[in-house]
Amino acid sequence: MDLQLKGKTAFISGSTQGIGFAIARQLLQEGAAVIINGRTTQRMNDSIEKLQQEVPGARVKGIAADFSKAAEVIKLTAQLQDVDILVNNAGIFEPKPFGEITDEEWLRFFEVNVLSGVRLSRALLPGMLERNWGRIIFISSESGINIPEEMIHYGTTKTAQLSVSRGLAELTKGTGVTVNAILPGPTKSEGVEEFIKQVADSNQVTPEQAEQDFFKTMRPTSLLQRFADVTEVASLVTYVSSPLSSATNGTALRVDGGVVKMIL
Ligand code: NAD
Question: For ligand 1, is residue 184 a contact (CB within 6 Å)?
Fold first, then answer.
């Protein structure tokens, strides 16, 4: 199937590793030009080199910016022109008892997980509407509808992304622009490997045991009963990025291994 992504330009926030990196690789494999993003130039350049090795002929560049710093985001958006596909992927997560999450942490989670996508969409949606084509994709989470008791602040930001996504889709009525959210389930990214290590340390078990316990106690409804690979999430994002997904708008699509027990 030709996903018709040649000639399109994508920007993916937080794409030096994990799900974002996998999305960048797949879009490049489909012939799109990709702008990746990370917090440091060094980290970003390493990822660009890796992508160029993995995808011969890849048209990839990077712009560094930290989404917890508004001034850096303003500088970033000023450099983004004619982006056809915006993937709002940057996100942070960390298990923490509710009583220990400070106001500062609540605000940091909101800024990185929600305002990142708000600021980028505010800058890029008008151009997409003017050109009558575009894709905005929010990488939310099953945690946005199954709020995890071990990180309520994270779940709250993931629910907020669903509202922003649906709201923005309303602004695309009758155009070739679509705005959708993707809800991954537990996925083996570098960030999640770190998360599992933290859970293992605090429960004083091995990471392998922590992983098994995770599906037994924290995500028992998973039908997959394993972490998804980052490429499994990227495949859905790549399809939604494509012109072929033109009738999919204003929705939240799950790639959650069946962890959410809902028919729709
Ligand atoms: P990860 O930690 O492996 O990667 C996150 C990326 O975001 C990294 O490249 C990191 O550098 C970047 N990032 C973090 N803070 C940033 C900041 N302040 N400014 C710029 N970039 C920043 O995580 P991942 O698992 O690949 O997660 C990617 C997205 O997928 C997140 O939004 C996450 O909430 C979502 N998600 C992940 C899972 C999962 O199980 N892995 C499940 C559901 C949703």
Answer: yes
